[in-house]
Specification:
Blueprint: H1 2-17, H2 41-52, H3 58-74, H4 79-102, H5 109-131, H6 133-140, H7 145-149, H8 157-174, H9 176-196, H10 200-212, H11 223-236, H12 242-255, H13 258-270, H14 280-295, H15 297-300
Length: 304
């Protein structure tokens, strides 16, 4: 059983790394489609934002995503809404459907997660294509990906992050082949985020490299290097509980440090969610994950 779970963690680490060779992409088509509906975008945006504020309820999160989708039919040029929609798709998959799949063993949840990650990836990439013509031109001309990334600036970081994050999770859910196909592109994006805005999304690039170096060099990784990145992410944004959960799951479990694994996840469970209202829903989901991994401690961690 533990061997099976270890394989899952290996694939997980690769997916956290991934994104690469293929250039099949929606941005190489029409990134400025015509409107297909009419309506009051301001009213829709207000209603979507109100639903998003209640996103701890799956129905409200789905309502927000649906309303943002309707808004884009009226005004497809809204790259900012595409980025928010990308985050919304990711949240539904990672903070709701994860538990339906892993805990409730809902047969439909895996497919729904794939759909949300794929849509999240698409919307964020469309936002990049709409806002950065130079990126789109070089990317679609199949120039080296680094050359395309050089066309982006700090304002592109949110779209880059939600694109890479959704793509990595999509690949993980899809297949190991998909992971390997995309891993280099995601790493290049995260390198760029670290250069342009390392504090973005609660030190996301440090969190990513913490996970990355649990497996690279493959398969043993570089756990001290991984720990240094995780430490920067956790110390930089201790209120973002996902950093501690991923650290425990991917680094401490591999170290075989059962005591620290347990203590770290218990810290997550003890956190007062009201201290960070802007990410209360995300942190509530991470507390549920912490409990789930603590319940799996005998399978995830073997002491040396």
């Amino acid at each position: 059983m533990r061997r099976f779970l270890e394989l899952g963690v290996i694939v997980s680490a690769l997916a956290v790394m991934g994104c690469g060779a293929s250039r099949q992409s929606g941005i190489c088509g029409d990134v400025n489609p015509a409107a297909t509906a009419t309506g009051d975008t301001a009213a829709l945006e207000q209603e979507a934002d109100a639903a998003w504020a209640q996103r701890a309820d799956l129905a409200e999160a789905e309502k927000a995503v649906s309303l943002w989708g309707q808004l884009l039919k009226i005004d497809p040029s809204r790259a900012d809404i595409r980025i928010q929609l990308s985050r919304g798709h990711y949240f539904i998959a990672d903070s709701h459907l994860f538990f339906k799949k892993e805990v409730e063993h809902d047969d439909k949840a895996a497919g729904a997660m794939l759909d949300h990650y794929q849509q999240g990836q698409f919307q964020a990439e469309m936002a990049l294509g709409q806002k950065y013509a130079g990126y789109r031109t070089k990317f679609c001309a199949r120039q080296p990906f680094d050359a395309a990334l050089q066309q982006l600036d700090k304002d592109a970081v949110p779209a880059m992050y939600w694109y890479a994050t959704n793509l990595g999770r999509y690949a993980l859910q899809k297949s190991l082949v998909e992971v390997l196909n995309h891993k280099d592109r995601i790493k290049a994006i995260m390198d760029t985020i670290q250069r342009l805005d390392p504090q973005y999304w609660y030190y996301a690039s440090d969190r990513y490299f913490g996970a990355y170096y649990t497996k690279i060099p493959f398969p043993s990784g570089d756990l001290p290097k991984s720990e240094a990145y995780f430490k920067r992410s956790i110390e930089g944004a201790p209120q973002y509980l996902a950093s501690k959960v991923i650290y425990a799951q991917m680094n401490l479990a591999k170290q075989g440090d059962r005591a620290k694994f347990k203590a770290t996840l218990e810290e997550v469970l003890a956190y007062d969610l009201s201290q960070s209202p802007e990410i209360e829903a995300e942190n509530a989901a991470e507390q549920k994950k912490a409990k789930y991994y603590l319940d799996q401690i005998d399978f995830l961690v073997e002491e040396d």
